[in-house]
Design goal:
With 241 residues, the chain is of the alpha/beta class. Helices cover 49% and strands 10% of the residues. Helix 7 links the parallel strand 2 and strand 3. It binds magnesium ion. The site of magnesium ion has 9 residues, from loops.
Length: 241
């Protein structure tokens, strides 16, 4: 299944695929956190007079929270929020999220990280999140694999996903890697678009309610139904190199 994907990738890349780092998205890839984020978004936006559905939260996933707030306020309230006002609404959302049960790490994540390390590749995380408590939890949960230098968050970039900036920053922070040296693992349409725009080999993991086409249409080079299945197929990918 990787043969065609790599061939397709190489057809558009400046250099052939030669991976040295895997950049994981956080929510919906490492943590089963999207249902909680969806509920928190809906509650917070409603409080400020905006209509935001669970579908909206999946469609906007990966974008910087303040960008999402600003865009919906303009669209629905015809209001230009200041950065401060947008941040306040985003923090309301973050506060609701933290009252909810701690989301679990997806089955297969730790196995996959061990295999990546055994293959001699580095690991990084690239998230649109600006929730400091979540980023701290990430560092605690994955301290075997990650240091703060390998994590790119909303605080590191001006433009969030679907802009390529987060993944380009992730490549740089992980060790000044070129796009063809990176593998992006994403669950969200905007995140896949960002990985593809950064010209990385982009693997979609469809852990949510969207159809596979929502991810494939954004240019994902291959797709798995879960991180567990990706972990079980890691050797196959390495065998192609
Ligand atoms: Mg995600």
């Amino acid at each position: 299944m990787f043969t065609t994907a790599i061939k397709d990738y190489n057809a558009t890349s400046a250099q052939p695929f030669a991976p040295r780092v895997v950049l994981f998205d956080m929510d919906g890839v490492l943590y089963d956190s999207m249902p909680n984020h969806a509920k928190a978004w809906q509650r917070a936006m409603k409080e400020y007079g905006m209509h935001f559905t669970a579908e909206d939260s999946y469609a906007t996933e990966g974008a910087r929270g303040v960008e999402t707030v600003t865009r919906y306020a303009k669209m629905q309230l015809d209001k230009d929020l200041t950065e401060e006002e947008a941040e306040h609404i985003y923090q309301t959302k973050a506060a609701y999220f933290h009252t909810m049960e701690t989301p679990k790490i997806f089955d297969g994540v730790v196995d996959l990280m061990r295999k990546i390390r055994e293959s001699g590749l580095r690991i990084g995380v690239v998230t649109g999140s600006g929730q400091r408590a979540l980023i701290q939890r990430l560092l605690n949960d994955f301290d075997e694999f990650l240091t703060i230098e390998q994590v790119t968050t909303a605080f590191d970039v001006k433009r969030g996903k679907p802009n390529p900036e987060p993944y380009l920053t992730g490549l740089r922070k992980a060790g000044n890697f070129a796009p063809w040296e990176g593998i992006v693992v994403e669950n969200a349409p905007l995140g896949v678009r960002a990985g593809v725009a950064a010209k990385c080999f982009t693997i979609a993991v469809n852990s949510g309610p969207l159809p596979d086409t929502a991810l494939l249409d954004e240019g994902a080079h291959t797709l798995f139904p879960s991180i567990r299945v990706l972990a079980d197929n890691w050797e196959q990918l390495m065998a192609q190199l």
